[in-house]
Design a protein that fits this description.
Layout lengths: L11 E2 L12 E2 L5 E3 L10 E3 L9 H5 L5 E8 L4 E7 L17 E7 L5 E5 L20 E5 L2 E5 L6 E4 H6 L2 E5 L2 E5 L6 H4 L13 E3 L2 E5 L3 E9 L9 E6 L9 E4 L8 E12 L8 E6 L6 E3 L1 E2 L5 E9 L4 E10 L13 E2 L9 E4 L6 E12 L4 E6 L19 E9 L27 H8 L11 E7 L5 H5 L1 E10 L6 E6 L10 E6 L6 E2 L2 H4 L9 E8 L2 E8 L10 E7 L23 H4 L9 E11 L17 E2 L6 E2 L3 E4 L20 E7 L40 E9 L7 E5 L2 E2 L16 E6 L3 H4 L13 E14 L9 E3 L7 E8 H5 L20 E6 L20 E6 L10 E8 H11 L3 E5 L20 E4 L16 E8 L9 E6 L23 E6 L8 H5 L4 E8 L6 E7 L6 E2 L6 E2 L6 E5 L2 E2 L15 E4 L7 E3 L4 E4 L5 E2 L3 E5 L5 E5 ...
Length: about 1600
């Protein structure tokens, strides 16, 4: 059948063309398909695409409803999806804080098998917080390479896991009712990091000296008989026995003396054991010495030599049985026997000592021993036998003879990666004869000029390799350990051997590898040589796979190290062997404190006359290393607390020793073990630093996943912190020669012809033969063909000198040159140098090989440093070995060399803490300096010294002011500002003065010696470039005197202080034309005024967004209007300082009204201030306090009853005067008495002028307001519906013109700004029938005026209110009344009535009606009041028959401030257009316009307007008081005038108006408590916003002057 195939390579759907016209490679329509992209024959074929299906919920699989996916990867080739999840959101992405209870997961889902596996995550035995995932750091890159899953999140270091291993180890575990496959293969950061664990510890080359012996029979029991043991007399044992069959390690009970022949030592053990085999009872058994007797020695061994350098071999001459004298033939090793001390052979087992040695006679000698032994004839006897001799040694005995070899190791992990190399050991070298010249060696040396025995005797090395844990396979996935080998003169790094996983120990901290001089089996690539750390980044944003390589991008490649560390360096004799001291409060050894070099490297020493620079390299746990860090100690010596001597800085010169140095036992040649560099750390390696100084500083390693960081972000789990350290050394002086000489002749040789030019001790001669001719070269720059004598300039340092003169020279000795060298000035043949005449040749007996006319070197020396032995005229010169050392060559290669000194930083810090009394910080130091500080201000609270390892409760501190010294203060920008601070000292028990940042410390007593920083100048926070450069961040550096010169570095930042606009006052002008400057803003930047002009530096002004477009504000603060301006505007100006801190001023520009003069002021007065029902109040706004209390009569009687008149002083007080009059009523029995109060108040105290002056009082400009408010609380429940409680205050507001006729006694009733008299007449009423049956609630208790100033309550019916002349008092026009009516039948709560009068006085700024500038006074007399005029006679002021009732008091029966007050009154005054003291709504600013509803239409009379409804027209006015509204506008900015020309019913219609919202100033204070506008009083409205006024307005919304009125409501 025909077959049609189509390949849709174009991957294009085309529905535009007819199906018959589709091009090849396109298709008409497709659903759920994809085009194959394979490289096989089906490329372009259509394939089905699977849809989505819910497999499982990760929140169910983890039983964690907070987990979120932060990364996913689809491995198409393996049909597997990998998902990364966490339930933690780091609150700070920058600080990246660890959280110990976070739960993190990695899941895989295989599409084919549908297996869901938790590769890493919380399980029953493991927590997953160590993954340290966060939703703030998504997994940026995920790749699969073969079987390895790699990922990076730029939060942690790059990581990877082995998919197969994690999957293979997964097992089912119940999770919230589900069975989930979970893997526990990866449980720590060390196991998944791409960078692998770094073996920071060097191989140890020391071993425990143990006793060994072979059992002499097969046995089971508690006594082991040891044949020829090394126990007795050599090592004491008491603890552990071990062998191939004895495994339970019984303790040793006792060790008996060796007896019998051969010698047998009986060892009693604690438990019965079986040793040996059925056929062979000889088993090697090792005994561990007692703790007190443990000794250690180097593990670099010579196992080939049969005897020690001072030993030898001989044969027995004859036999002996239990004898103490043995005869031997001449020793096989000639000349060695005379120093022998110990015998050993197959039969002589207990190594007896030699007591005496007989003379050689007939080729034999006799030896007397200290104990009887048994031997046979011709038996070979070893003197000073080598205890390490191994007759079956399999290695090459000469392989290491001419090599300096170092050893290291590395780990191989389960995925085939290798760790970096561990630090290499020092050279495994011990010279033959242990470096000693034995008999005849010195002569051989000066004859050959070569030391023949300076070859390596080491042929076996026990490498003690430290392990990171006791289970390195499971803990770190280590599979193998490679033993690394490197020769000193070779570049290749090779592998000696590999310790396989099966050979790795369990439950051991070390593994011993026995190196037996075998050749390496493979060479590592050159890249491994420089692989001091894995070049895996610390963090990386990107990751990709290319060519089977993992590539990282946008990464942080290393940590930031400290700039310096505080340590000293010295060079002293090696310390005694010690495995270290214990950690504080434990018995565990701190390995940092161990001193093992004396055993590990017994003949190694530090070269003298050399400069050494010692540095420290820090590494993280994965080998990422720092640069070399040097010490901050630059000069001066520091006495070492261990008594070694003096230490210097990081660079240290180690001189030659002098004669006084070797007087001590430890420095003697016979006991000197060599020198070593010593590093004394003074302060800890810091766990935290200022990140501004050292961005990227990782802190210190912390592997405890249960620890969260501190609140400041420091501490807590930190796998990437600095973990280990190693000491590195740089030395420029390199190769040098030892010149081995046949004596050194001090002075000229005997027999020299002629006059001796130079005496003894000024010149010396040396004979140059063999290689010495090259070691001491001639200067051959200009040489003639016949030249026999040459110039030289070689510098030599004497090291060994012959002793004595001529024949008396019988030994040589060490020479100590100090710092002086000797110069070889001439080299030539003997006869030319000494002037030997060829005709009479002289043989110089003082010159070695004189007969050969050898080359001589003439040396210049000084008497105080003379070397050599002088010649003798009578006896031949004895030639003894002399040694010079040449000046070393200097290398210019700036390189530090690795040492074997390494350790953990945590151990080092603990050692520092426990071994030094170290000041490590300042207790409670906190720099709180501010830009606003004055000179002499304290910028810290008291702080003190903090001592390491001391509980600070309270701190243990040093004493003495000089203990702490401020050495420098340096900004982060590098500027030294030390002089800007001084350090004050406060001894313990000081009572602190005031002035510290924490004012609570004032007057407190110090519990410890303290210090505080104080300023010596002003501080400016700026300008901007200095802020950016770190000039506002300070490093304070202190030194202590008595605590190892401890350096303490702390930091602080100057605090910026917000700028302040200094002239933020309202912008009020009558008008402003375009391009007019209306104001120039001024401000300070936060510095004190005393700082001068700098306190206004770098300030920039600007207009706040949203402000009116009519204004421009320059950066200098100049405000200009850009068009003709009138009205109310919104303008806020902002000033910013150099750091961007701001202050804002809302100028609220008003162009039209002037403010009232400052002398008028603003204020308030209430009952507690003197308005009382038994007293009167007079308030004065006046420019003259001496004449304001005038005799001008008031409109009301001030003395209706005897002795109750207004008692006023003739002169006003500066603030207030209260006068009282005691009055007794004798008309009643018994007599009643009381007190009447009269208060005079001078508003001078309320002046807003910067300087308060009486002459500024009154009103001289602008418009003010005066407000009187009285309140009556119902005194009781009346008995009838007509009964009422009522009161009346006689009040008068008066004015006088300062330039008017009759001044100062020209007081008249004041007029307001509309020309109306300011009278207080009127009645405000609140009655029960206003509320129906619901009773009064809320503002319903404050209903409005029912009568105007011409009406009043009928007081005339009461005789008590009529004076003796029959004139009624008070007058209706001067009495402000209140009336409350609530009969008992209503059984409602008591009602309240409030009567309010506001008057605007001064300048009529809108109408221009006339200005009333001058003085004002308000007189408020005590009130009249009564309850129920129909029957009650309980009046507030009683006439002739009764006295004031207590319940009428403004403070109630409880007296001043008590409860139950009935009448309350208050006075307020201020600027009418800017009434700050009326702002009770909580608004931050006084409005510049006020909002009202006005009736929808106009009316022909006021009554019709007052009852109009509804109110829908929204208008605005400048005035808050409804009586004084002058103009309505349609907009809040008062730019568009309101008009209602379409609804006008007359030429000047009446409109009613009311406030819109509450609480506002116009609703709360501007209604004057007018009545509401509903005629049906039963449904009376109750809120202030319904209180109405009415007035006449023209077509432009302007009010007719004086037309405002309120409602004449029904009584």
């Amino acid at each position: 059948m025909a077959e049609v195939k189509n390949a849709f390579i174009n991957s294009k759907m085309n529905q535009d063309l007819d199906g018959r016209l589709l091009p090849s490679g396109q298709y008409r329509e497709g659903v759920n398909i994809q085009v194959s992209k394979s490289e096989g024959p089906d490329v372009g074929a259509l394939e089905n695409v699977r849809g989505n299906q819910l497999i499982a919920s990760f929140r169910s699989l983890t039983n964690n409803d907070k987990v979120e996916v932060i990364g996913e990867y689809t491995d198409v080739s393996n049909n597997t999806i990998y998902v990364f999840l966490t339930d933690y959101t780091d609150p700070s992405k920058q600080s990246q804080k660890y959280k110990n209870d976070a739960r993190n997961y990695i899941f895989s889902y295989n599409i084919s098998t549908e297996d869901v596996i938790q590769l890493i995550g919380n399980t029953a035995t493991n927590t997953s917080s160590w993954l340290n995932f966060s939703t703030t750091n998504p997994i940026y890159a995920i790749n699969v390479l073969e079987d390895l899953l790699f990922w990076t999140d730029n939060r942690n270091q790059p990581r990877k896991l082995n998919i197969s291993k994690a999957t293979f180890t997964a097992s089912l575990a119940p999770v919230a009712g589900l069975n989930v496959l979970q893997s526990n293969y990866y449980t720590t950061e060390d196991q998944i990091s791409v960078a692998k664990l770094y073996p920071y510890e060097c191989i140890n080359l020391y071993r425990l000296n143990v006793g060994k012996g072979r059992s002499n029979s097969v046995y089971t029991g508690t006594v082991i008989n040891i044949l020829n043991s090394t126990l007795s007399g050599e090592i004491k044992v008491d603890s552990v026995v071990s062998s191939t069959s004895i495994t339970s390690s019984p303790t040793v009970v006792s060790v008996a003396d060796a007896t019998g022949s051969p010698l047998i030592t009986a060892v009693t053990i604690s438990t019965s054991q079986t040793w040996g085999s059925a056929t062979n009872g000889s088993e090697l058994i090792t005994f561990t010495p007692a703790t007190a007797d443990k000794t250690y020695s180097t593990s670099m061994l010579d196992v080939v030599s049969k005897y020690l350098p001072n030993g030898g071999l001989a044969t027995a001459n004859g036999t002996g049985t239990s004898a103490t004298t043995i005869t031997i033939n001449e020793p096989i090793q000639e000349g060695q026997y005379n120093v022998g001390a110990i015998l050993s052979s197959s039969s002589i087992g207990d190594s007896p000592a030699i007591v005496t040695i007989g003379a050689l006679a007939a080729g034999v000698r006799s030896l007397v021993l200290d104990k009887p032994v048994t031997w046979s004839n011709d038996q070979i006897i070893t003197f000073n036998a080598n205890p390490n001799y191994n007759a079956a040694y399999p290695g090459d005995p000469d392989y290491l003879r001419f090599k300096f070899v170092r050893f290291s190791y590395r780990y191989k992990f389960d995925d085939g990666e290798y760790s970096p190399y561990a630090p290499f050991t020092q050279a495994a070298f011990i010279p033959q004869q242990d470096g000693y010249f034995l008999e005849g060696d010195e002569d051989d040396t000066f004859r050959s000029t070569v030391v023949d025995f300076m070859q390596n005797k080491v042929n076996q090395v026990i490498l003690n390799i430290p392990l990171p844990s006791t289970n390195i396979v499971d803990d770190y996935k280590i599979q193998e350990i490679d033993i690394i080998y490197k020769e000193s003169d070779g570049l290749a790094v090779t592998v000696l051997d590999t310790i396989l996983r099966s050979q790795l120990p369990l439950n051991a901290n070390f593994i011993d590898y026995d190196y037996q001089s075998r050749k390496p089996f493979k060479t590592l690539p050159e890249s491994g040589l420089v692989r001091v750390y894995d070049k895996v980044p610390v963090k990386a944003f990107s990751q990709e796979i290319s060519g089977n390589r993992v590539i990282y991008g946008n990464f942080q490649d290393k940590h930031t190290p400290p700039n310096q560390l505080n340590y000293n360096v010295g060079a002293f004799s090696k310390s005694d062997f010690s495995l270290g001291t214990t950690y504080p409060t434990t018995t565990t050894i701190n390995p940092t404190t161990k001193t093992t070099s004396v055993a590990e490297y017994p003949v190694h020493t530090l070269k003298q006359n050399r400069n050494y620079q010692v540095g420290v390299v820090l590494s993280d746990r994965f080998g990422r290393s720092s640069t070399v860090i040097l010490s901050s100690v630059n000069n001066g010596d520091v006495l070492d607390t261990s008594g070694f001597g003096s230490f210097g800085g990081a660079t240290y010169f180690h001189p030659y020793k002098n004669y006084s140095d070797v007087s001590s036992e430890i420095e003697k040649i016979s006991t000197w073990a060599g020198d070593a560099l010593k590093v004394q750390f003074n302060t800890r390696i810091p766990s935290t630093v200022n990140q501004n100084d050292l961005p990227g500083y990782p802190g210190l390693y912390n592997g405890d996943i249960t620890q969260n960081p501190n609140t400041d972000g420091t501490g807590g789990y930190n796998p990437l912190g600095w973990y280990s350290y190693k000491i590195v050394v740089k030395q420029f002086e390199q190769e040098y020669y030892n010149v081995y000489l046949p004596g050194i002749l001090n002075g000229y040789p005997n027999g020299t012809v002629g006059t001796i030019p130079d005496p003894v001790n000024t010149t010396a001669f040396i004979t140059l033969i063999n290689d010495n001719i090259n070691k001491v070269p001639r200067d051959l720059s200009e040489v003639g063909p016949e030249q026999k004598q040459y110039r030289s300039s070689v510098q030599l340092y004497g090291r060994v000198t012959p002793n004595g003169n001529g024949a008396t020279t019988d030994f040589n000795e060490q020479f100590y040159p100090g710092t002086q060298s000797n110069t070889v000035n001439t080299i030539g043949e003997q006869d030319f140098v000494l002037g030997n005449d060829a005709a009479t040749l002289i043989d110089y007996t003082d010159v070695y090989q004189t007969i050969s006319n050898p080359y001589l070197g003439r040396i210049t020396q000084t008497p105080n440093n003379a070397i050599g032995s002088a010649s003798s005229a009578t006896t031949p010169y004895n030639f003894f070995l002399g040694v010079y050392e040449t000046n070393p060559t200097e290398s210019r290669i700036n390189i530090f060399w690795e040492t074997s000194t390494t350790g953990l930083i945590s151990d080092l810090n603990l050692a520092i803490d426990s071994s030094t009394t170290q000041i490590d910080g300042l207790y409670e130091f906190s720099y709180q300096g501010k830009e606003s500080d004055n000179i002499g201000d304290y910028v810290t609270n008291p702080f003190a010294l903090q001592i390491t390892n001391t509980v600070l409760s309270p701190p243990v501190l040093s004493s003495g002011q000089t203990e702490l010294v401020l050495t420098s203060v340096i900004t982060r920008g590098g500027t030294t500002i030390t002089g800007k601070f001084t350090l004050d000292y406060f001894p313990k028990d000081t009572i602190l003065p005031s002035g510290f940042p924490d004012s609570n410390l004032d007057g407190t007593t110090l519990a410890y010696d303290s210090y505080a920083l104080k300023t010596t100048t002003y501080f400016y926070y700026g300008p901007a470039d200095q802020i950016a450069a770190g000039q506002m961040q300070y490093d304070f550096n202190f030194n202590t005197i008595n605590y190892n010169n401890s350096e303490i570095n702390v930091e602080g930042t100057l605090q910026n202080v917000n700028p302040v606009i200094t002239n933020c006052t309202p912008l009020i002008l009558t008008e402003a034309l375009a391009n007019t400057v209306v104001k120039t803003m001024t401000a300070t930047n936060g510095m004190p005024a005393g700082a001068g002009a700098v306190n206004t530096s770098n300030l920039v002004f600007s207009k706040v967004a949203g402000s009116s477009v009519n204004f421009d504000v320059s950066s200098a603060g100049v405000i200009t209007v850009n068009q003709d301006t009138f009205g109310v505007f919104d303008l806020s100006v902002q000033v910013a300082d150099a750091d961007g801190a701001t202050d804002t001023c809302n100028l609220a520009p008003i162009f039209g009204e002037k403010p009232v003069n400052c002398g008028f002021g603003q204020g308030g007065f209430s009952n507690a201030s003197g308005v009382d029902n038994t007293g009167s109040l007079s308030v004065y706004w006046t420019s003259d306090a001496t004449n304001s209390v005038a005799s001008t009569p008031l409109s009301f009687n001030t003395n209706p009853f005897a002795d109750t008149d207004l008692d006023l002083s003739s002169t006003l007080p500066s603030v207030q005067e209260v006068k009282s009059k005691n009055v007794t009523n004798t008309a009643v029995t018994p007599n009643e008495s009381g007190v009447f109060y009269n208060t005079s108040y001078n508003t001078l105290i309320n002046s807003l002028c910067s300087v308060k002056a009486q002459s500024d009082g009154g009103i001289t400009s602008g418009t003010g307001f005066i407000r009187v408010e009285v309140t009556l609380n119902q005194a009781g429940v009346e008995t009838t519906a007509s009964d009422s409680t009522f009161f009346g205050y006689p009040i008068e507001l008066q004015y006088r013109n300062r330039t008017g006729v009759g001044y100062p006694n020209n007081w008249v009733t004041a007029r307001d700004i509309e020309g109306n008299l300011c009278t207080f007449g009127g009645t405000n009423k609140n009655a029960y029938f206003y509320y129906g049956q619901t009773g009064p609630t809320g503002d319903a208790q404050l209903t409005g005026f029912i009568r105007n100033k011409s009406q009043s309550e009928d007081f005339y019916n009461y005789d008590d209110y009529i004076d003796t002349s029959g004139v009624p008092t008070p007058l209706p026009s001067t009495t402000l009344e209140g009336l409350v009516r609530m009969p008992s039948a209503q059984t409602r709560d008591g009602l309240t009535v409030k009567a309010v009068k506001n008057f605007a006085v001064g300048e009529s700024q809108f109408y221009g009606q006339g200005n009333y500038f001058g003085d004002y006074r308000l007189i408020i007399r005590y009130p009249y009041a009564a309850v129920s005029p129909s029957g009650y006679t309980d009046y507030i002021v009683l006439g002739y028959n009764q006295w004031p009732a207590t319940r009428w008091s403004s403070t109630g029966a409880g007296g001043a401030g008590g409860a139950g007050g009935t009448i309350n009154a208050s006075v307020k005054w201020g600027d009418f257009y800017y009434p700050d003291n009326l702002n009770t709504s909580g608004a931050t600013e006084i409005p510049s316009s006020y909002e009202y509803f006005v009736s929808n239409t106009g009316f022909s009379n006021s009554n019709a307007a007052l009852i109009s409804s509804p109110f829908n027209t929204r208008v605005f006015a400048r005035e808050w008081d409804m009586k004084y509204i002058s103009q309505f506008y349609r907009d809040e900015a008062l730019q568009v005038k309101w008009n209602d020309s379409g609804n006008i019913t007359s030429s000047l219609p009446w409109y009613s108006y009311r406030p819109i919202s509450s609480p506002t100033i116009n609703a709360e204070s501007g209604t004057q408590n007018a009545a509401t506008g509903v005629s049906n009083v039963v449904n009376q409205y109750t809120d202030n916003i319904y209180r109405q006024w009415t007035a006449q307005f023209n077509s432009d919304g302007k009010k007719r002057l004086g037309s405002s009125t309120t409602i004449p409501a029904t009584v």
